[in-house]
Amino acid sequence: MSGRALITARGLGVRHGATQALRDVDFEVRAGEIVTLIGPNGSGKTTLLRALIGAAAPSAGTVTRAKGLRIGYAPQRLALDRTMPMTVARFLALGGGGRTERAAALEEVGAPDIAERQLAALSGGQFQRALLARALLRKPTLLALDEPTQGLDQPGVAAFYALVARVRRTLGCAVLMVSHDLHVVMRESDRVVCLNGHVCCEGAPTIVSASPAYRALFGTEPEGALALYRHAHDHRHDGAEAPGCGHGHGGPVAQAAAQAATAERVD
Ligand SMILES: Nc1ncnc2c1ncn2[C@@H]1O[C@H](COP(=O)(O)OP(=O)(O)OP(=O)(O)O)[C@@H](O)[C@H]1O
């Protein structure tokens, strides 16, 4: 990645009370890139995203944000009851901007006609578009999207990612995303970061998935991406350190996968 660093974390640790959610995370988001955080439930994806954008405080290390950085954030959960009577226009108004900006944002996300619809009456895809439109109102240099395709069917997921890619092209913003949609993630991200309380592996998905070791282990189908996702996590952490991953990998297959992935590490 050649863009300037928008956010840099060094030795980042985050605790939630007694829970050490993240430790020793070194991470950068660069201008214009789409970087996606993957990992099992509870692996710290939301925590990392929130710490990077300044919504969660580090317990160790540093997070540096570029001067003038504008972040548009679509959270995983809204502090708002979606069944509450509220139109999309009103919901967007809470995010700031005037009527023209709101209309432009809805246009940008391909949902120009939903302004007067009730939030509760939106489909899953329309609701995610409304959330994205709200994040766009700040004219962000970085879009932070936490599981933006939650609850969408496969065509809905693909359409949403295509939309995010288009928004990135149009606005030139970086996108930092949490996602479980591994097959699409592997196709649409510039960089994938696999978390499990720390960074297990990271790299350009095309290079990782095209590497002979990766293909030998996982093939090239979407299931392969799923296997990559699983490799670092469905194993015992038994103390045998795998090169570059900083935690134990349970067997030679997982170790080879880890090597294939970390070989393309982008630092
Ligand atoms: N507010 C909180 N209070 C206490 N513990 C928390 C809090 N938020 C997160 N945690 C814990 O921190 C760890 C990381 O949580 P986080 O939500 O970041 O994971 P995640 O990878 O985003 O999970 P998921 O895929 O399920 O959304 C988990 O063990 C979680 O239980």
TrEMBL record:
Q: Which Pfam families match?
A: ABC_tran (PF00005)
Q: Which SMART domains match?
A: AAA
- What PANTHER family does the record point to? METAL TRANSPORT SYSTEM ATP-BINDING PROTEIN TM_0124-RELATED, ZINC IMPORT ATP-BINDING PROTEIN ZNUC
- What keywords sit in the KW lines? ATP-binding, Cell membrane, Ion transport, Membrane, Nucleotide-binding, Translocase, Transport, Zinc, Zinc transport
Low complexity bias spans: 254-267
Query: Would you say which domain of life the source belongs to?
Result: Bacteria
Q: Where is the ABC transporter domain?
A: 7-221
Provide the residue span(s) of the region labelled Disordered. 237-267
GO terms of biological process kind: response to zinc ion; zinc ion transport
Write down what this protein is called: Zinc transport system ATP-binding protein
Recorded GO terms, molecular function? ATP binding; ATP hydrolysis activity
